[in-house]
Design goal:
The chain is α/β, with parallel strands linked by helices. The protein is built from twelve helices and eight strands. The longest helix is centred in the C-terminal third of the chain and has 22 residues, at 228-249. Bound molecules: iron/sulfur cluster (SF4).
Length: 347
Amino acid sequence: MAGDIRSSESVETQVFAASGQDQKDFAFDEAHDPTRPADFWFQESDEGTILFVVFYTQACRWSRCLGCNLPARMSQRHVGFRNMMAQVDFLFALPEVMERRLTLRKVIVSNNGSVLDERTFSSTALIYLIAKLNLHLPNLAVLSLESRVEYVDEAELEFIARALEEGDTPTKLELAIGFEAFDDRIRNEVFKKGLSLAQFESLCGLVARYGFRLKCYFMQKPVPGMSDDAAVQDMHRAIDYLCGQSRRHGCPINLHLNPTYAAFGTALERSLRQGGYSPPRLADVARAALHAEGRPLSVFLGLSDEGLACEGGSFVRPGEGPLLEKLETFNRTQDFALLREVLALRG
Ligand code: SF4
């Protein structure tokens, strides 16, 4: 027990120190009720209805990525398994979840950090969640777990996949990994992601061996000093690379492309205020994604800022509702003609 307390103190220190390194000035959310998830919402994709749930836990231990304020929705302190199990119970008592229980095809589990980091996300709560998924969602086809690569543990994944097989419908495991930028220097030196291509490629091998799937999160224009064209080119290179890895390893990959918003309390907000940064245009997001047409890659565009953008920091400009609608329809259909329509509307 004493060991547990010491560990949680050291995680707390790590979180605090890491988020200070980039002079982030957001506060953690200590006022949140720890028996309630931080957030949840539904998405429509070509795979069917998706439930996206963000559990409220101790914040991401890495916490240093340049434009990220996701930890602002989390606690600096440890959240124990009893509270996290109560979050799971809360989720499955929600009428909007239970009404969709027969149609939900995919659940994405997040804690704005790493679900596979057992120091911040309780293993007991994760097993409990999987049991509830098997009990309540008989048509679940994919369970997606967000994590940094260093917390991926082969034995743990094998166990989770076995548990998922016991559900009424075979459920595939998907690992959702934050990549953010393709360019090595931008990803690791500027954005401070701490992810090498070698780490990613070894994960592809593991995922392929077990027949799992991968989702890769990228941010379009994630740092100041990057032109709109350079941001599109970076995504084109990312698409080429992911297609190559998917073919080489034989693992299905979904590209989750998030247009970057200026997150409050980060260096991006400061740069936006000083005129050194502007979020990408939706038309450029369409231009980036169009490169995946006819390739072995599915694409989902992350079109919500989850309430984390600073004022004026969103990638949706006034009057861009029709463009947004077309991109949302693209998510449901994978119809690339819609991306061309977005480019034509831009004129
Ligand atoms: S982007 Fe992910 S890994 Fe990086 S600080 Fe944010 S939550 Fe942590």
